[in-house]
Amino acid sequence: MAIDTDNNPAAVLIDAPAVFQVAEHLFCAYFFIEITIRFLAFEYKCDCFRDFWFVFDFCLSLYMVAETWILSLVLVVSGFGETEALFSANVLRIIRMVKILRLTRMAKLLRSIPELGIVAKAIGAAGRSLLVIAAFCVMVLYVFALLMKQITDMVQETPADPSLIGDFATVATSMNTLLLKSMFAESASFVYSLAAWHPIFWPFVILFILITSVTMMYMLIGVMVNVVNSVAASEREGSTVSLIAQSLRQVMMKLGMDPDGPLSKQTVTDLLLDAEVAQFLYGLDVDSIVMVEMLDTFYEDIMEKEGRQMNFEDLVDALLNLRGTNPATVQDVKGSIRILKTTFTKELSELRRSLLGEINTLKLDLRDAGDLESSGSEHDAG
Q1: Domain residue spans of the chain
Q2: Which residue windows are transmembrane per the record (predicted)?
Q3: Which of 1, 234, 274, 276 has the most CB within a 10 Å radius?
């Protein structure tokens, strides 16, 4: 694109040098074939419009086809020679501006390089914070512009640099001066000139620079770093979820299990004890043995809350919650207490049932022993 912009002055393709025409046709053919293959890959063609990147690439390819092939074909069939004579200067200017849309091809890099996508999403997520900081900067500019204008009116001395008087002639001019000569330029000569005019300017200008160029910039960097970390963590979490779901589905299909139906305890147990799954979960810091031991609790929770068996989504969610890298929360503590209570109640119930069984057995044995003793006594008496 840079070479085309620097060396191709033609507004339309048929007036461009041959090398640029060949390159444009090759690029157009490549993108057209790519979008066609991607469209044919959809089992249900209507689903393609639910894919944002497919729609984006389709619009880009449509624009390229219209510019490269359709427009060129129309001009050639119409028999026009030099298109510069066909269009007015305004139309040619519009055509050249429309060619800026080619820059949208750069968006493909967002998919090729995930880090660029993270940065772009971070900028979008930080948009509100950026607007707030920009608004605060404007407020600071306005306040200090008023202050500088009033000081300029009060000071009687003539500055060494006469242009400073014009720089602060009005509030708007003062804001422009502070913005261009202080925030976005090397401020030393500006501060020296003001200080040479009158020392009272120095502390106010320094304070302004500290607030805007130092404090605000570091705040902006902090906001961006925080947002980038949040977006990166979200992207990593999404990648982990996709990896777990995809890997488990592949193993389940290999073992003849149905990932789309309800999962019984035995099915989940067999899946978690599979060597491939256990090794995969170990890499994600998930103990499959602990998961197997807690299956009863998970199934009871799902049955109590939703009245159904565990499905594939519940299994993935449970595995994500059992990662050793997860920070402990109050909800986790409450869940642990609830599990302990449930386990204790269950064990106590089983112990009570066992004791009652033993007591009943003992009673029967004692009764049988008493009956034998009484029958023996009667036999001796007879």
Answers
A1: 2-112, 127-233, 257-321, 332-382
A2: 18-40, 52-80, 125-148, 200-221
A3: 274
